[in-house]
Amino acid sequence: MIPDDKLRAQLPHTLRQIDLPALGELYRGKVRDNYARGDEIVMVTTDRISAFDHVLGTIPFKGEVLSRLTAFWFEKVKDLAPTHVVDLPDPSVMVVKRAKPLPIEIVIRGYITGSLWRDYQAGKAGAYGIEWPKGLRKDQRFDRPIITPSTKAEYGKHDEPISEQEILAQGLVSKDLWREATAVAERLFQRGQEWARSRGLILVDTKYEMGTIDGKLVVIDEIHTPDSSRYWVADGYEDRFAKGAEQEMLDKENIRQWLIKEHGFSGHGTPPALSDDVRVMLARKYIEVFERLTGETFASDVGSVEERIQRNLRAKGYLG
Ligand SMILES: Nc1ncnc2c1ncn2[C@@H]1O[C@H](COP(=O)(O)OP(=O)(O)OP(=O)(O)O)[C@@H](O)[C@H]1O
Ligand SMILES: [Mg+2]
């Protein structure tokens, strides 16, 4: 594990955004700066962190961790479905095939926790059109993973839960494509859970984005990262569950908890500034997931991420 003083030294060099108009047309998401040209997109994963749909600041090495983890996972699942990856010119950059995104995010859950738990408890989990079993407890494992789709809202709007019936009734996705997409999600999730388990982690839930290229289904965006997924430490899960204790989380839930507990912020009003201590703590969590999942020691140099990306893109011919 990179020592804390190195994480701290990287604080001023994190990547907030990158302006490279020569790469094409910019679409700035909450986390990625995406440059589209022709049938490809250069996706730069910045060090931005978002929670409750607000961008809060940057975390040392986060973009690199997410991009490298996505590459790692795409390699692990490439027999299950085609993915959008074309090239990895820099540890924070993925060149991908441009797809027509489905307007639905496929969330799949192995356990009841987070927002679903809160909705279930409040009797408000009806929007998914699922008959929930009675008497579930927080963090309980489902007999089999359950898909809780959400709409992919336009920038600045919140994603909303939606049922399969609605998706099909509104024709948001055709029936055949939906069948295929959910089947792919189930296979990806099973592979993800198995691998995570072999590395001492529980892949609790995750979100897939899929699209089509020439009518064919492709997995796009990021996959099984700690931004798009929940990870718990497997060791001690049963004990903590039996006692009703919090699970040991290695994902974005840490920032949500910090915002709620330390600042009473859960998405309304102006988010608090992240302290350097919390930025370093979060960097450690991201790197810990990376190291656990890949079995590699995360190594990266302190210094400007932007300059490194420019150098690599120039060397590989993406920038003149
Ligand atoms: N292969 C692809 N083709 C087209 N779009 C893609 C592809 N892969 C990812 N995307 C889109 O690129 C964007 C990635 O940026 P980012 O993850 O920062 O966005 P986000 O904040 O999650 O979503 P939003 O679009 O709501 O801002 C997402 O909108 C994602 O759906
Ligand atoms: Mg995203």
Q: How does this model look, in words?
A:
The chain is an alpha+beta fold and 320 residues long. The chain has a domain at 101-243: D-amino Acid Aminotransferase, Chain A, domain 1 (2-Layer Sandwich). It has 9 helices and 14 strands. The longest helix has 24 residues, at 175-198. The model has no long low-confidence stretch (mean pLDDT 95). Residues 29, 31, 221 line the site of magnesium ion (MG).
Keywords:
320 residues, alpha+beta, 5-stranded antiparallel β-sheet, 9 helices, globular, binds adenosine-5'-triphosphate, binds magnesium ion
Query: What is the name of the CATH superfamily of one domain?
Result: ATP-grasp fold, B domain
Q: Give the ligands present.
A: adenosine-5'-triphosphate, magnesium ion
Number of helices: 9
Distance between the termini: 36 Å
Q: What composes the largest sheet?
A: 7 strands, antiparallel
- The shape, in one word, is globular
Give the helix level as a range of percent.
25-40%
Mean pLDDT: 95
- Percent range for β-strand residues: 15-25%
CATH architecture designation of one domain: 2-Layer Sandwich
Assembly type = single chain
CATH topology of one domain: D-amino Acid Aminotransferase, Chain A, domain 1
> What's the level 1 CATH class of one domain?
Alpha Beta
Briefly say what this structure is.
With about 325 residues, the protein is of the alpha+beta class. The chain contains nine helices and 14 strands.
SSE topology sketch:
Layout: H1 4-10, E1 25-28, E2 32-37, E3 40-45, E4 48-51, E5 54-58, H2 62-76, E6 85-90, E7 93-97, E8 100-101, E9 104-111, H3 114-121, E10 141-147, E11 150-151, H4 164-169, H5 175-198, E12 201-213, E13 216-220, E14 229-233, H6 237-243, H7 253-263, H8 276-294, H9 305-315
Antiparallel strand pairs: 1-2, 2-3, 3-7, 4-5, 6-7, 8-12, 9-10, 9-11, 9-12, 12-13, 12-14
Helix pairs in contact: 2-8
Bound molecules: adenosine-5'-triphosphate and magnesium ion.
Adenosine-5'-triphosphate (ATP) binds next to β2, β7 and β12.
